[in-house]
Amino acid sequence: MQQRVKQKFFPNTSFKEMAGTNILIRHANQQDIPAIMELIYLKAEFDGCPESVKATPQKLEVDLFGEKPLAFVLLAEVDGDAIGLATYHFIYSTFLAKPGIWLDDLYVKAEHRNHKIGEALILRLRQIGQEKGCGRIDWTVAVSNERGIKFYQRIGAKIINKVRLCRLDSQAIIQN
Question: pTM (2 decimals)?
Answer without folding.
Answer: 0.87
